[in-house]
């Protein structure tokens, strides 16, 4: 295991420990504020299709944002985790159309119950919201380490797709530096409750 892998694992443990102490009230407040911040972004204002996700555990809440995008008429795609940890996609049709799906040894996910569109559907998105545990001001994102979104980013690159990449985080998760590897693809905007932090030289 490389030094960068060790550093990422240690940082993940620390960040997940902090998230585990957040209350339900904390999560609801952050979700509302984040939705307001994100919806002011020109990338989302002009987007026809947004690939997003349903937040779980201590992740900054996405529910309010998903609902407002749907209300605006934006087509929202949500991920469906496949057995090999790749992602399929289906359209978001409201909170009542989400099904709880348990995965062995993992958080229970809430996934769309509509027709599957295939892993390539993400390449048609104008904006992709990426889950993360942290990011830095260079746009380097730290994920959970499962590799699902590394595949998404590789798929976008292979297709020549260039959607705006956004990550939603708590304020304390915007760090001075995140351990990076050559294949890590920077995001364009880090959105926290205190504001949208646009990566210099990107968008």
TrEMBL record:
Q: What class of enzyme is it?
A: ligase
Q: Which InterPro entries match?
A: FTHF_cligase, FTHF_cligase-like_sf, NagB/RpiA_transferase-like
Q: Does the keyword Zinc-finger apply?
A: no
Q: Which cofactor does it need?
A: Mg(2+)
Enzyme Commission number(s) from the entry: 6.3.3.2
Entry's Gene Ontology molecular function annotations: 5-formyltetrahydrofolate cyclo-ligase activity
Q: Which UniProt keywords apply?
A: ATP-binding, Ligase, Magnesium, Metal-binding, Nucleotide-binding
The similarity annotation says: Belongs to the 5-formyltetrahydrofolate cyclo-ligase family.
Recorded protein name is: 5-formyltetrahydrofolate cyclo-ligase
Q: What is the lineage of its organism?
A: Bacteria, Bacillati, Actinomycetota, Actinomycetes, Kitasatosporales
